[in-house]
Amino acid sequence: MSSKQPANSLRQSLKARHMTMIALGGSIGTGLFLASGSAISSAGPGGAILAYAAIGLMVYFLMTSLGELATYMPDSGSFSTYGSRFVSPAFGFAVGWNFWYNWAVTIAAELSAATVIIKYWFPNSPSLLWSFLFLALMFALNALSAKGYGESEYWFAIIKVATVILFLVLGVMMIFGIFGGKPVGFSNFNLGGSPFHGGFFAFIGVFMAAGFSFQGTELIGVAAGESEDPRRNVPRAIRQVFWRILLFYILAIVVIGFLIPYTNPNLLKTDLNNIGVSPFTLVFEKAGLAFAASVMNAVILSSVLSAGNSGMYSSTRVLYAMAKDGLAPKIFGKLSSRGVPINALIMTGLIGMLAFLASLFGDGVVYNWLLNASGMCGFINWLGIAVCHYRFRRAFIAQGHSLDELPYRAKWFPFGPIFAFILCIVAIAGQNTGAFTGSKIDWYGLLVSYVSVPLFIVIWLGYKWVKGSKLIPLKECDLTMHERPNR
């Protein structure tokens, strides 16, 4: 950090390699290592590939939209700031609090998951102990500096990326018979005469799971506010999103589909309590690597800690930015001597302590409750990106600017944000189709799955009613680029 940076500002200390690994590691986690198995089991390898490809395309457009916004106006408030400037203060208020709640609760969910995973080695240890230790680690990394977060996330991502690359190389060698015996051919991939199984609702279910798997890629927008050179580093990281999705998710599902029949009952058991039957573990064991379960357990542990670490960083920054913009209590706008929003960090950490409930009610129960409480919020965040980018680009043109002024331009506008918006709506509406398809409507399931939507609308309209907030005309949207640091 330059000594010329004022003490009352965030530090632009995230380097290019940090931004790259935040982008690379953002969507690699339990969605790939665990959920991919149940996706193949439900819809077959073809259905799983199609669902992940559709969501992947949507995420690509969302990331290019966010890339255009974040390179033109890098800001740690990201979603809240863009919503307030390009839509309305009420929309920015609702999106900001939705984002904070989403990732603050995710910390608790990931801590609960970590306690389940660690018990693979220490089955009789107390959940309270592990929740406290992991939360303390995340808090310390974030309290140190933005660079502390970036450095830890860099190494977390390295572990995940290396595991996936090893899996793909080994899997391809097994498919062609170079390693582990004879070539497998298409017998597993085309089992039953088609790679598609389960019908439409099975596909929709996988579509939802794929959406959860990719949540986290949007954190690059928050990190842009503390990047050394966002105009160069953010586009570089964004451009890798599509290839990352193609390589890590699509190819991994192809490898699993070729090597493991979708009828394998172990694919249905790929959850936190059954690490031994992660599809990655199954393939490694098929290759003769007896230690696969322990290794994958360690990798998945690093993944959930990475997700919790990222959640603490991003939710802290957004809460800080909202405080500076008058959308949250001013106390959360205080910075430590290291340029860390310390009060916002403490508040976010307190929400993470919800994970301590795991010691009272059981790890799996708490984890599933917390995950359901925050999952829908991620899709709402993505909707916010699409709406903000669409409004920004129209305001940019309406105010007489040329597209040549943009340091990074999202391709296929307006198709990109409109396509992403429609798919997000489909994903939200289809969140729990099972609640409607039975003989009776599952009202409890509906409540758990959809409660975030009316809550968001109430916050949005409530602020609008209290403050008299209105939609900002395109020619009045604030396109001012402040000199950095802008907080």
From TrEMBL:
Task: Answer yes or no on keyword Iron-sulfur.
Answer: no
Keywords for this protein: Amino-acid transport, Membrane, Transmembrane, Transmembrane helix, Transport
Put simply, this protein is called Gamma-aminobutyrate permease
Q: How does it sit in the membrane?
A: Multi-pass membrane protein
Q: Which InterPro entries match?
A: AA-permease/SLC12A_dom, Amino_acid_permease_CS, APC_YAT
Q: Which residues form the Amino acid permease/ SLC12A domain?
A: 18-467
Q: Which gene encodes it?
A: lysP
Which superkingdom?
Bacteria
Provenance organism: Paenibacillus cookii
Locations listed in the record: Membrane
Q: Which residues cross the membrane?
A: 21-40, 46-63, 100-122, 128-145, 157-179, 199-220, 241-262, 287-307, 340-361, 367-392, 412-431, 443-463
